[in-house]
Amino acid sequence: MNNSDQKKLELFTIEEHKMHLFRTGDVNKPKLVFMSGSGTAAPMYDFKILYEKLLEDFRIIVIEKFGYGYSDLFEASCEIDCVIDRQRKVLQEAGENGPYILVPHSLSGLEAIRWKQKYPDEVKAIIGLDMATPKTYLAWKGDEIDRRIAIIKKMKKAKDKGLLFWFPLNKRALTKEEIKEQKILWKKNAFNECYIKEAEAVLKNAEEVAAAGKIECPVLMFVSNGKQVSPNWLEHEREFAEQCNAKLINLNCGHYVHYYESDLISIEIRNFVK
Predict the structure, then answer these.
(1) CA of 192: how far to CAs of 80, 157, 173, 187, 235, in Å?
(2) Contact at 8 Å (CB) between 253 and 261?
(3) Which of helix, strand or coil describes residue 260?
(4) What is the pTM of this model?
(5) Which helix (H) or strand (E) holds 20?
(6) What does the pLDDT read at residue 8?
């Protein structure tokens, strides 16, 4: 990255390490805070296909946690309240104030739910992009989580040995320079220890979120066809939607729903917020 690009990055010191926050759009518009799923190497670029279609009506913010995007590879605590407090702190350091509309993908669904449970006044609504629910992970139990952690570790070893010289990355809506940056970030972040620690903490975090009970706020859920996730994914999504009286929109596409249905999702988000 050249010097002019480096100046555009907004890096904030959280727990003595740098965390990156991407933000764009009118500060007076409703704030959409995008929260990435596990292992998404470059959230800032991953969500672009969707947020570029929402810029006229919203303030766009993408949080890149430690181990993600341009943030440091720092193995901080993955206990869910710690994860949320770091995200709140980086927003505060950046001068952003709630209430926020949280837009979690996959794993970060747990974080969005917990954020609403713990700091209800800060969360105006939740818009899930095939977001995980507590029951998703509670149904996996220890054996399934251990199996998935083993896969991440295996992929990490292959990457460290230079064997993963090719890996499919989303290029939708990205410029040539952004595609290049995304590749650099993948090489930096893919299968790193932060993702492993996150996976190791997920069951305990799910138990904590489940124990805290249901949330009370407007919720919109975009749900994939379930084929790229886990058994009973759709069942658990429907159960959670019923529990919190959410609007659920089924999409016949893969887990990264914003890649495939960004036009429809952007329209539905506008209507929902109105």
Answers:
(1) 19, 10, 26, 10, 31
(2) yes
(3) helix
(4) 0.94
(5) strand 17-24
(6) 82
